[in-house]
Amino acid sequence: MELTTILAAAATLLGGLYLFYSYRFTYWKRRGVPFPKPLPLVGNFGFVLTGRKVFTTALKEMALPFKEKGYCGVYQWTKPLLLVWDPEMIKQIMCKDFSSFHDRGLPADKHDPLSQHLFNMGGNKWRNLRNKLSPTFTSGKLKLMFPLMRDIGVELSAQIAEETKKAETHELKINTLLSRYATDVIGSVAFGIQCNALRDQENEFFIMSRSIFRPSPAQFVRFFLETIHPKLGGLLPFWLILSNVHRFFINLMKDTVEYREKNNVERNDFVQLMMQLRKADLASIDPENHVELNPGVMAAQGFIFFIAGLDNISNTVAFALSKLAANPELQDKVANEVRDVLRQHDGELTYDALKKMDLVNRTALEALRIWNPVGLMLRKCNATTRVGDLTIEKGQVVFIMAQIAAMDEKNFPDPTRFDPDRHLPEVKETRHPYTFLPFGEGPRICIAERFALLEMKLALAMLLRDFVFSNGPGHKGEVELDPKALFPMPKDGFVLQVTARA
């Protein structure tokens, strides 16, 4: 009797679970939203378990069968997610109805100081902190920071010249050197220190920054838990997984601030600007939503520089150089622009000189279009809203698949062809402005957009002034992506042949 009761209870439980999950998987069908067929329990996220696909690539493959519709639904295990790539819907979500989609749905962890950055924050706390930090990225402030960045650009050029001489084939894994360049730039501007990662292979700052991105079993488990439910990621917080990294960055900012205050040291960098903001006592009239710029919060803003800018910038510049290597005529055209502008500025690469290099700018933008380092943006609906022909309900997480629009032949004919002229003003006017969003759009547009572009253009100008890039014996054609990476990462790097430009 007892066994019969147990079996009956088990059957009832399994039947109930089956009905529950079966009903969950009708969410999109009941709303008339197209979706790829989900698998039991895992939905459309079985790829997370295999680790064989880049996260953004997997989502793109799910969406492409419904490309003409402009949106589709998927299942993150049993949780419905909405993918959107229609430009007009993106515009409505990011701008017109921003009040209904102002958060990313990635709450900051109150126990983790390094999570207290703009990307995670929402609501009034995000707004207050953004208002404080926005003045640090004006053209005037970037112009003051530029000499610090240029010095590192000079060091990058010198290091490439030195390493090229050592290599018999003159081939270099260019993205590795650019990653060290980005480390030195961010270390100097965001943390106020001279890292010297370009010269020092064992540099602690570089090692710590790399460990953020190095896949580990613990990080995979956390990512797996978060895809099931965001709160489950809290069972294995980043501050615990990367405790040494967290201590390093927080103590670094704390020591830098204390040293400058004690010795009256000032420097034209992000740290100094945040210190000035803190002294200005920009306290909010709403204490509950006020964000104090203490060393922990300051470290968090510097930390997100690394998350958003290290590999993203280095790989995008490396991708641009690889495309120029395949098109020597275009490469010479860009290099000639650099040299022509420098002649107008007595040979000195200044902030104003770089602003005049229009083709360099368009080359960086075209690299961002094809090699979009993120490719998607996250929004959470906080009030049920009609977007296009679809009602998006409160609590729904939306993935804005910007890369699909940027690689659509309707928006960019022959989309895989590298063509900087796509970004000429007269050409841009012919397409929807929301088909190319490398830094987002609307009130939550990337606050460091100008800084990131400046860093990329500086590297391109420096390197194309001094070197010729070509495909050598180590060239493998199309770049293979690392399937274990969350965002596009070259599995074997960008290997280019480098020679001095005459």
Automatic annotation (TrEMBL):
What are the subcellular locations of this protein? Endoplasmic reticulum membrane; Microsome membrane
| Gene Ontology annotations for the cellular component aspect, listed alphabetically | endoplasmic reticulum membrane
Q: How does it sit in the membrane?
A: Peripheral membrane protein
What are the alphabetically sorted keywords of the record?
A: Endoplasmic reticulum, Heme, Iron, Membrane, Metal-binding, Microsome, Monooxygenase, Oxidoreductase, Transmembrane, Transmembrane helix
UniProt cross-references to SUPFAM superfamilies, sorted A to Z: Cytochrome P450
Q: Where are the transmembrane segments?
A: 6-23
> Main location per UniProt?
endoplasmic reticulum
List required co-factors. heme
- Which Pfam family is one of those matched by this entry? p450
Give GO terms: molecular function aspect only.
heme binding; iron ion binding; monooxygenase activity; oxidoreductase activity, acting on paired donors, with incorporation or reduction of molecular oxygen
What the entry lists under InterPro entries is as follows: Cyt_P450, Cyt_P450_CS, Cyt_P450_E_grp-I, Cyt_P450_sf, Insect_CytP450_Detox
Binding locations of heme: C446
Family the entry assigns: Belongs to the cytochrome P450 family.
Q: What is this protein called?
A: Cytochrome P450 6a2
User: Which organism does this sequence originate in?
Assistant: Frankliniella fusca
